[in-house]
Amino acid sequence: MKKQKNKLDEAVKALQNDTIATGPPKEVLDATLQKLKGGAPEKAGESITIAERIKASKRLIQFGASAVIIIVVGLILIGVLAEPEVQEVTEVAREREVVEAEGIAETTEPDLDVAAERLATRLQEELESIEEFFAAGDVVSLIAMLNEGMYESKTAAANYLGKIGDSRAITALEELSLRYGDDEASNPFVQAIKQINARVQAEEMKLAEQSTDIIQAQPAAQKKVSAETRIISEQKNIHGWLMDPAGNPVAGTIQLGGLTAATEEDGSFTIAEPDYKEQNSFVGQALSAQGDLGSFFVWSRGNDINNAEIIVEPLASTTGVVVDANTEPVTDFELKISIFSKERLTLQSIIEEEPWKSQSYADGSFDINSIPTGVDLRLAIEKPGYKTGIDLDGLSAGENLDLGQITLEPTEEPGQDTQWNCSIEGFVINENNEPLAGAKINTGPVGERRFETETDAEGWYRLTGLPKDVEIKMFAFAEGYGHNPFTYKCSEPNNTADIQIFPPAYDWYDKLAPPLFVERWFNTAPIMLEELAGQVVLLHVGANLKERPEEIQEFKELSETYAESPLVFIAIHERARDITEDDIQQLVEENDINFPFGIDQQSDVVTDMLLPKSRPQDQNLVRPARRDLRAAGATYSIYEVKANRAYYLIDKNGLLRSSPTQTNLGEWIEYLLNE
Amino acid sequence: MIDWQLIVDKHGQSVWQTAYRLLGTHSESADCFQETFICALEVSKRQRVWNFSALLVSLATSRAIDRLRQRFRDSKFREEAVDLVFVPTKGPGPVEQLQVQELAGWLRRSLTQLQPQEAQVFCLRFLNGMSYRRIAKELGITTGTTGVLLHRARSKLQDFLEAT
Question: What domains does chain A contain, in order, with CATH numbers?
Answer without folding.
Answer: 48-234 (no CATH), 236-411 (2.60.40.10), 422-500 (2.60.40.1120), 506-673 (3.40.30.10)
